[in-house]
Design a protein that fits this description.
Largest sheet: 7 strands, mixed
Helix content: 10-25%
Oligomer: single chain
Structural class: alpha+beta
Strand order of the largest sheet: 3-4-5-6-7-9-8
Shape: globular
Length: about 170
């Protein structure tokens, strides 16, 4: 099991009781590097809703300083469409890691857990979309086997400039 310093990273499916912790993590990790929506403002929308169900999320947690395990990251993995003809594909629609856990393998551990979960659901392909200027995320995805499959130049106008939307994908078969 991967570790953050001396604390093992445990990945598990999300449960409804994770609502507050994941909502807080989501707001704390909001960044112009990856967000296409405005910074969240109170009153906050619920983390879980009809489009973001606990069963589509894996949570990374670590036991910090002898306490209870605490979420330090999550990944949202969903079918990209409701069509039967692409049930073999899963799409990453969110990946967040708490600042205090960055650089310790949490995102990589979540990605690898997502690959296994998707395979277990019968998927043989995974896709994602990432902003063109998000070099750290793109490097991580490439190191885990994703390749650029398309670019929508200037797809988003964010903070006074046009930003590319980069589509990446990878096979889940050995």
């Amino acid at each position: 099991m991967p570790e953050t310093r001396t604390h093992p990273i445990h990945v598990r499916p999300a449960v409804l009781a994770d609502e507050a912790a994941l909502g807080e993590l989501d707001r704390a990790t909001w960044s112009t590097l990856h967000a296409v929506t405005p910074r969240p403002q109170p009153p906050y929308d619920p983390f879980f809703d009809e489009h973001h169900r606990p069963e589509s999320i894996l949570v990374a947690e670590v036991e910090e300083d002898g306490g209870e395990p605490r979420p330090v990251g999550y990944i949202r993995l969903v079918p990209p469409t409701p069509l039967a003809c692409n049930t073999h594909v899963r799409q990453i629609q969110g990946l967040a890691v708490a600042d205090r856990a960055r650089g310790r393998g949490v995102a990589r551990t979540l990605l690898r857990a997502a690959f296994e979960a998707a395979r277990g659901d019968g998927a043989n392909r995974m896709t994602l979309r990432v902003l063109g200027h998000n070099a750290p995320a793109r490097a991580l995805y490439e190191s885990e086997g994703f390749v650029v499959e398309g670019v929508l130049p200037g797809e988003f106008f964010l903070h006074g400039r046009y930003v590319d939307d980069v589509m990446m994908g990878r096979s889940l078969t050995p």
